[in-house]
Structures are given as structure tokens and as C-alpha cells.
Amino acid sequence: MVVVGADVHKRTHTFVAVDQAGREVGHRTFDAVTVGHQRAVAWVREQFGTEVVWAIEDCRHLSARLERDLLTAGQAVVRVPPKMMAEQRRIARTRGKSDPIDAAAVARAALREPDLPVASHDAQSRELKLLVDRRDDLVKHRTATINRLLWRVHELDPAWAPKARSLDLAKHRRILADRLDGVAGVVAELARDELDDVTDLTTRINELGRRIAGLVERAAPTLLALPGAGALTAAKLVGEAAGITRFTSEAAFARHAGIAPIPVWSGNTRGRVRLTRSGNRQLNAAIHRIALTQIRLDGLGRTYYEKKKTEGMSTPEALRCLKRRLARVVYNQLTTDAHHHNTVQPMRQPAAA
């Protein structure tokens, strides 16, 4: 078995192959384009055969095209968190920093952690991730625009200020537009222009929301049945999970989401745990929203939460337990949806996150 570590950049990728003992057995640099990736695969096959695992530092956009091309070529790929690579480089005997040193650190980190998430991203979850990320960007843009608009309105007349968090509704935008209509001056002109921007952004956000809801209804109907898992939250879970079948167990999924507890005890505090602050924070936030919703609703989630509190747990500790339980439920329901989808459409093509 040979592990090929990759240090990725915009224009070039450097690959270092190490054996099972962590010894370097070869390294090459290729252009960061599909042709370069195909040459890298040909080089690895010629030098090391087919018993190869590719370890890629998880750099999202920088590594996305490389992952997609490797998966298309039928290669096994695992994702290495950047902090794990940095730690491996820190403890290595080789000092300094270079692309080959970083690539070797990625490969050795993968050797030390055999349960790293496997890179796999079906077209369905990738599409949802792209759409949800785009909607999130538009929401952030609209929020910034609304904040600027509110300061313009405050400067013109504080009494004109709309209700808090109301400008996503057409009714309140029309009221504000009527107040600004005909007001002279640059401030009013800018305010009207920004109000038009808010209207345009809201239209695009709503259109994306409807499109996402339609896609997630087909992709994850079982997950949507979970109390607290609305269309946008379910789409976030599907997109960020990037193919639930790549996780070996629900515990691996919980760890990836930063929800699995880690021990923090010494002496008399034996048994105490807390949640890790690492992991995929988007997955963590989505499950956190489901937990908060279930606490407010009557149902199994609230019953479990109250039970933990009666056992003497604090509010944060009970919430952590509920999130860990929900991670198991989400994993099982995503697995059910994935199995159903694979049965209906067995010919999926993987793509990078």
C-alpha cells in the first residue's frame, strides 16, 4: 500500500508518495488542470500500481477539481484536515517548509489516521451544496445592504425605521418605498437604490429557496420527516455530508460534524466530556438548529432533553447529549435516503465537494 499526499495550489499540485512506514518513495509536481491530474494518475499507476490511496489536504475550492478528477479516474481519496497536516509537519524530522514537505506531511497524517473521511460527492449532494452556499451568500449580501439602508433611513427620519427584521417582506418594503418617494437629496436617492437591491436579492433568495426545497424533497424525504429539519436545514445536511456512505459508522459522522464528545477529566472529575471544537461547523450548526427546535416542540427530542436535565446535567450538557443523539438519527435517515436513491438511480457519478 502506498499513500500519495497532495499539496494543492492554484496553478500546481505537488504529490509525494510514501510507503506504509512513512518513507518517501517518490514525488512529482503537475499542473493544476485535468490533464495534469491525469498525468499524475498515470505516474502513480506506472510507479506504484493500483494499491494506492490519495490523501488530499481539505482545502475546499483548491482541492475540488483534483478530487473530482481523481474520483472520475476511479482512485481512492481521503481528506486530511489542514491542522492535522500542520501537526504532522511540526513533529517531523525534516525541518522547514516546502511543497514536497507539506505533501509528505499530508500523506503521513493519512497513514496515522486510517479512519479519515473518504472523498465522495454524488451529483445530487454537490448540487444542493452549491445552491445552499449561493443562497447563504445572497442572504449575507442582503443583510449588509439592509444595514446600510437602515442607517440612511435613520439619517432621514428615525420615525421611518421599519420593524426589526421585516424588510424581507414585500409589505414593509412598500411602506418604506412610499416614505422615501419624492424625498430630495443624495441620502434618499441611495436609500431608494438600496431598497431596490433588497427587493432584487429577496426575489433571488426566494427562488433559490423554492428550487432547493424541490431538490431536497426528492433527495432526502426521510430526513425531511424529522421534526426541526426544514428544507434548508435538510439541504445543508445533505450537501455538507457529501455522500453519507463515505462514513464507516454514525460515530464517524458525529466526529466529522464535531458532535462526538471528547474526554476532559482529571482526578475527581472522572467521566466529564465536552464537544470538540473541530469538525465541520456547518453540519454542527444544522444539527444544533434541529436540537433547538425540538426542545421547543413536544416530542421525543424535548423528552430526552428534559430527562438529561433531571439527571443533574446542566443546560449545555443536556443540549450536547441531544445533539449527539440527533447525529445518530440524521446519519440513519440520510443512509436510508441514500439507499433509496441508489436503488432508484444506481448509476451515480462522483464529483468533488
Number of domains: 3
**Class computed from helices, strands and strand pairing:** alpha/beta
Determine the N-to-C terminus distance: 26 Å
Please tell me what the overall shape is. globular
Following the backbone from N to C, one meets helices and strands in this order, namely: EEEHEHEHHHHHHHHEEHHH
Uncertain stretches of 5 or more adjacent residues: 346-353
Query: Order of strands side by side in the largest beta sheet?
Result: 3-2-1-4-5
What is the multimeric organization of the chains shown? single chain
- Calculate the mean pLDDT score and round it: 88
Residue fraction in strands? 5-15%
Question: How can the largest sheet be summarized?
Answer: 5 strands, mixed
Give the number of helices: 13
Determine Rg (CA atoms, Å): 25 Å
Q: How many strands appear in the DSSP assignment?
A: 7
Measured as a percent range, the helix fraction is 55-70%
